[in-house]
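Q: Structure for this?
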Amino acid sequence: MTKANKLRETENLQEHLQRIIHLLRQQELAEERAHVAHPDLGESVEKKPDLAELQNLLDRLHPADVAHILEALPLEERLIVWDMVKAERDGEILLEVSDAVRETLIATMNSGEMLAAAEQLDADEIADIASDLPSEVIHDVFQSLPMEEREKLRAAMSYPEDSVGALMDFDVVTIREDVTMEVVLRYLRRLDELPDHTDLLFVVDRGEHLKGVLPLNRLLVSDPNATVDSVMTRQTVAFHPNEKAHEAAQAFERYDLVSAAVVNGEDKLMGRVTVNAVMDFIREESSSEALNLGGLRQEEDLFAPIWKSLKNRWTWLAINLVTAFIASRVIGIFEDSIEKLVALAALMPIIAGIGGNSGNQTITMIVRALALGQINAANARKLFAKEMGVSVVNGLVWGSIVGLFAFLIYRSASLGLVMTLAMLLNLLLAAVLGVLIPLTLHKLGRDPATGSSVLITAVTDSGGFFIFLGLATLFLL
Amino acid sequence: MTKANKLRETENLQEHLQRIIHLLRQQELAEERAHVAHPDLGESVEKKPDLAELQNLLDRLHPADVAHILEALPLEERLIVWDMVKAERDGEILLEVSDAVRETLIATMNSGEMLAAAEQLDADEIADIASDLPSEVIHDVFQSLPMEEREKLRAAMSYPEDSVGALMDFDVVTIREDVTMEVVLRYLRRLDELPDHTDLLFVVDRGEHLKGVLPLNRLLVSDPNATVDSVMTRQTVAFHPNEKAHEAAQAFERYDLVSAAVVNGEDKLMGRVTVNAVMDFIREESSSEALNLGGLRQEEDLFAPIWKSLKNRWTWLAINLVTAFIASRVIGIFEDSIEKLVALAALMPIIAGIGGNSGNQTITMIVRALALGQINAANARKLFAKEMGVSVVNGLVWGSIVGLFAFLIYRSASLGLVMTLAMLLNLLLAAVLGVLIPLTLHKLGRDPATGSSVLITAVTDSGGFFIFLGLATLFLL
C-alpha cells in the first residue's frame, strides 16, 4: 500500500508483528535480568520504555490488525498483548479472531469483562461469539439489553451457523414509497451516520413488508422531486433466514451485491446481509474445506497446547489407520504369493498410489461441480462416460510405463503385463468410485467435500493391492 | 429466496437448468423423429415451440446465470444455447464463464462477433478476457476504442494476473476538496448514474493526486453547506497496481471495504478496486488451491474432451509416478528381508500411510499460517517445537496401536516393537519436513500451497518404507 503518510499503511502489518515480538522479548530479558540482579525486587521498573512503545503501537492498530497479531503470537505473549489492548476494543477484537484463539482469550476474562466486551457489540455480533461465552454471561448480556435488542439477539442466535440468518445484521434503513427524493435526503441527514455497507435503502409499507429497494446510486442522481415509488427497484434479491448461507454467497458473487434484504415468509423485512459477512463466510467455508482435505478437523490455534492439537488431528488419523489396517489385511491374504515372488511387494505401492492420485482428481472435479450445482440426473451419465474415457487412456498410458518399469527391473514380460492390466483396472475402479462416492454422499444429504478423499484413497489402496496381487497370483504363480 | 413474484427468484437456477436440458433433449428427439419420418425434409418445423420457450427462458436470465447454465451443459448442447443468447449479451457472459468454458465458446465465434462482444465491455473487463482472444482481434479492439480507453486497456493488460492492477477498474468518481456537499450532490445529479459499488467519492487535487475519500454515507448525513475538506476521510486504504492482489484481498476482508483507490508512486489516482473483483479473486484463489491439492493443474471444463482433461491431469500423475518409482526402489533394497519375513510387506503400507497423513496435517497448518503472514523467524522455532511434541505423542500412541495390531496378527513381540519404533520415527520425519518444506518453498519465493503435499507424501512413503524395513532388517533377521 502507498507509503504516503496520510494513507493507512497496512503493508507494515508484518513489520508491526516483528516489532511487537521483539519488544516482548526485550521485556522478558529485562525481567530476567532484573530478577538475577535484584531477586527480591520482583517486578522491575526498567521495563517501562519498551512497554510504552508497545502500548503505543497497539493503540494505533485497527482491531482486525490486533486480532491478526494475537493469532500469530505464542500463548504467553498473546496474553500480555491482550492485557494491554484497551478494554473498549475487547469486543471488536474478539469478533475478529478465530474460534480457537477466542477461546484462549476468553479464558483469561472474568464475567464482568466479558459482559463489558459484549456490550460494545450489536446483537448480531454478540450472536457470533455467543457459543464461546459461558451461559451465565449470555444471561447477563440478555438482561442488560433493551427489549428490542434482546429480540434481535434471540433471533440471531436461533439460526444454524450455515444459514442466512447467521449472516444477517439488523442495520437496515427503511423508507416509504410515497415520499420524494428530497424528503429521503432530508431524512437521512437527520441520522448521525448510515450503517456501513449501506448501498441501498429498503422500501417498506406500514406493515414492514418489503416493496423494493432504493439504491443510493439512484437516489443521488435522481430528480429531488421524483417519488421513491418511481425510482425504486422492485426486482430485488431477498433471502429467507433459513436459506443456506452458501446459496446467498453464490447470489452475492453472481449479482455483485453489496447488501440484500432478509425477509420472513410474509415478505416482512427482518434484516439484511452485507458483502463483508458473505466474504467472511466464503473464506471460512473454503478454509474449513482445505483443513478437512489436509486431515484436520477444524481450524487450529497455531500455538495450541499439544493436547488440543492432538484432539484436532486424531479423528482423521484414526480413520486413516482403519483403512490402512484393511489394506494391510488385503496384502496379508496374498502373503504366500509375495513369498514366492518378492518383486510384488516392491511394485504394489505404485498401483495403489497412482490409483489414489487419479481417483482424487475425479473426486475434486465432481465435488466442485456439485458445490456449484452443475450436476443433475440429466448430465451425470455424460460425466461418468467422460471420466471412464479418461481413465482408460490413463490406464493404458501409465500402465504401459509402469509395465515397462517392472520389465526393465525384473526382466519378466509377464510381470510387466500384469502391472499394466492392474493399473488399468485400478484406474477404472478409481473413476467409477470417484464419481459414485461424492454423488452418493450428496444424495444422502452429506457434504461430499468431507470424507470423499479418504474413502477413494481407501478404495484405491485396498482395491489396488487386491487387483495387482490377485492378477499376479492367477497369472504368474 | 423469497417466492414473492416481485423479487428475483434465483433459487430456481437449478430448476432452470433442468428445464433447459429437458427442452434441448425434446428438441433432439423431435429432430431425430423428423429425420426418420421424412428423411429428406431435413430441418423440421415442429421444433419451434420448444425452442421458443427456451429462448424466452434464456432472455429472462441474468448473464451470470446464463454463464452458470453454459458451464453445466455438455459441449453440443452448450453451443446450441450459446447461439440462442442474444448477441448484445455475449461480452458479459464471456466475462462470467470460467477460462476453460470461455475457450469452447470463443472457438465458435468469428472475429466480427468477438469484436462486437468486446465492444460491450469496459477496458478492464476486456483485459480479463484478452488472453483468450486471437491477437488480430485484440488489435482490432484497440483500433475501435477511443484514445483514452485504449490507454486504460493497455494499462490493464500490462499487470500480471495476481496483481492489484489486474483487479483494478476505472469507474472512479472524483471531486475537489474545496466544494460543499450541496455542490457535490448537484454534480452527482448531473450524472446519468453512478458506477456500481460506488460507496465513496475520491477527493483529488488538480494533478489527480488522491487527497482522501468522501464516503457516500458521510455525504448523505452531512450539512449541505459543509465543505468536502471538512468531512472527507484522509486516512484511507490505497493500493499500488503492482502490489499482490492477495494482500489487497486481505485488506478488504480486514477493513470491510467496498471500494478502494489504486494510486501510482506519486499518489496519483489511477483507478479503484471493488469488493466484487476481490470476491472473484478470493474464490479463484481458493479454488485453484483446492484443484492443485486434488492433483489437477487448473480448472477443467466439466465436459472437456478427453484429451484436454488428460493434459490437465498428467502433470501431477507424472510427478506421482516418479515418487512411486522411488518408493518402489527403496522397497527393492530390502527384498531379501521381505522374502525372509513376508509380514513386512503387509505392514509397511501402514507406516507410510499414517506418516503421510500426519505430515499433511502439519503442512496444512503451516501453509495456512504462511498465507496469513503469521510465521516469522521469531515464532518459527516455537511452532517447530510444538509440531515435534505433537508427533512424539502421536508416534507413541498410534505406534503402540499398530504395534499391538502386528503382535496380535503375527504373534511376534519384537515385530510389534519394530512397528512402534518405525511409526514414531516416521511421524518425527513427517513433522520435521512438514515444517521445513513449506517454509523453504516460501523462502525461495514459491507458493508453498503447490507441491508441498506431494513432497511430504513422497518423503513419508519412501522414508517410512526405509525406516521400517531397515529397522526390521537390523533387529528381526
